[in-house]
Write a structure and sequence with these properties.
The protein has 79 residues and is mainly alpha-helical. It has two domains: 1-38; 49-79. The chain has helices at 3-20, 22-48, 53-78. The relative contact order is 0.05. The model has no long low-confidence stretch (mean pLDDT 91).
Length: 79
């Protein structure tokens, strides 16, 4: 018997329990929702943490764009 058969037997047992017992199906649904929420939090943290290079680049680019706008506005007022 190979390892794939053992995995298939374990998967079949879990599938049988999920189909027959409503509380196990509900628990699995809640676990999937928790995992999805944790993934969203991790994604948000990676995209918005100031220590990451991506966020620092975005902040630098935004600051540079704002500085150029302010310089153009200041030069137009001086003319």
């Amino acid at each position: 018997m190979t390892v794939s058969y053992i995995y298939f037997i374990i998967f079949a047992c879990f599938a049988y329990l999920i189909v027959t017992d409503r509380s196990i199906a509900h628990a699995l649904y809640l676990l999937v929702r928790i995992a999805r929420r944790k993934l969203q939090v991790f994604k948000w943290w990676i995209l918005h943490d100031p220590a990451t290079p991506w966020t620092r680049f975005i902040m630098w680019r935004r600051s540079l764009h704002l500085a150029k706008e302010l310089m153009n506005e200041l030069q137009s007022k001086n003319k």
